[in-house]
Amino acid sequence: MARTTVRWFRSLEFRRGFSFSILLVFLSFLVIGGRNAEAAGSLTISAAMSLKNAFVDIGRVFESKHRGVKVYFNFAGSGTLSRQIESGAPVDVFASASVRYMDEVEGKGFIIKSSRRNFAGNSIVLIVHASSRVQISSLRGLLNEGIRRIAIGNPRTVPAGEYSEEVLKHLELRSKLRDKLIFAGNVRQVLDYVARGEVDAGMVYASDAGARPDEVKIAAEVPAESHRPVLYTAAVVRGTGNKALAGKFIEMVTSGKGQKILSDYGFIPLGKEGS
């Protein structure tokens, strides 16, 4: 009986049958594994620092609606993020606080043009520490001797800084305030400087000022006509392995729920019409 079994084990038919069975099991694992990988997929979103609070909330909602999906964020100045993408950073979605940086990556072929959507606006405000006794009713008040340090984002890489510089040039204050200006790496750093009392004033988005009302207060509104409109735009990054899922995240941002979250954080929602 044993010899018969050995002969049968060694027979060509058995080896073929055995190999086929192993192949089926192996393929089954691949299929199941592939389905699990898809179900447990992840997205990496590179977004402007000013979007941090709102996008973290939107990410939670997105994860709750796409079981097994994990959303990771990379927040920084839009100029820094665009350079990372151009250097090959593994990013699925880019959300910029400036159309200029999105135009640049689009012109170089780093995003899927058809996926691009404008989804929110914002405004620029002048803030001081919540306990500051400095009296400033307009940006010209920055010329006062009592104002020695003014923080803005670095105009070379931070859209909020670029808008701030446009404002100062429009009001013919840029050269007069040159020695008072301190450049920050992103708009939230400007907020930190003011909140900690390390500078006398700063220029940020209205949404940023609203994020820490106990630490900073708005001293003056910035005239809208003094700078280009603040417009947020998002697109799927070319080369993503999660094109469909990345597109769904942008759909979430422009959906009623996403726009409500953005509005709650002080952004100007544009809805799907913003595209």
Rounded mean pLDDT score? 86
SSE order in H/E notation?
HHEHEHEHEEEHEHEHEEHHE
Strand proportion, as a percent range, falls in 15-25%
Distinct helical segment count? 10
Query: What structural class do you assign from the helix and strand content?
Result: alpha/beta
- List unreliable stretches of 5+ residues: 1-39
Structural topology:
Layout: H1 2-10, H2 12-39, E1 42-48, H3 52-65, E2 70-76, H4 78-86, E3 93-96, H5 99-107, E4 117-122, E5 124-129, E6 150-153, H6 159-170, E7 181-184, H7 187-195, E8 201-205, H8 206-211, E9 216-221, E10 230-236, H9 243-254, H10 256-264, E11 268-269
Parallel strand pairs: 1-2, 1-3, 6-7, 6-8
Antiparallel strand pairs: 3-10, 4-10, 4-11, 5-8, 5-9
Helix pairs in contact: 3-10, 4-5
Short description:
The protein has 275 residues and is α/β, with parallel strands linked by helices.
Account of the protein in words:
Mean pLDDT is 86; it is low at 1-39. The chain is elongated and about 55 Å long. Helices cover 43% and strands 21% of the residues. The protein is built from 10 helices and 11 strands. Strand 6, helix 6 and strand 7 (181-184) form a beta-alpha-beta unit. Helix 4 runs parallel beside helix 5. With 275 residues, it is α/β, with parallel strands linked by helices. The longest helix has 28 residues, at 12-39.
